[in-house]
Design a protein that fits this description.
It is built from two helices and two strands. It is an alpha+beta fold. A hairpin with a 2-residue loop joins strand 1 and strand 2. The longest helix has 25 residues. The radius of gyration is 37 Å and the shape is elongated. The N and C termini lie far apart (about 100 Å).
């Protein structure tokens, strides 16, 4: 519609043409934006009313690196392994 901006879909059926208005997505988007803005304000209020956290910890973190793998330990050769001979 050029006057109101309403969008319609039209299709031809056995008895002629039929047009149906397409749902307006803008009103749904505006409603969602309003809901999200209200939720943001509510969460800001909760943050302001809650305890403040400085982000600092009281104790130092350990110096060890938990992701570092332990060095492989060499194993002692068995006596039988050293006494092997190659026979041809």
């Amino acid at each position: 519609d050029t006057r109101t901006g309403t969008v319609s879909t039209c299709s031809k059926n056995g008895s002629g043409w039929a047009c149906y208005a397409v749902p307006d997505e803008r009103s749904a988007l505006d409603a969602e934006i309003g809901r999200l803005q209200a939720e943001v304000e509510k969460l800001k209020g909760q943050l302001a009313a809650g305890p403040t956290v400085s982000g600092k910890i009281d104790e130092a973190l350990p110096k060890s690196d938990p992701l570092k793998k332990a060095e492989p330990q060499a194993r002692e050769p068995k006596v039988a392994e050293g006494d092997r001979k190659l026979e041809i």
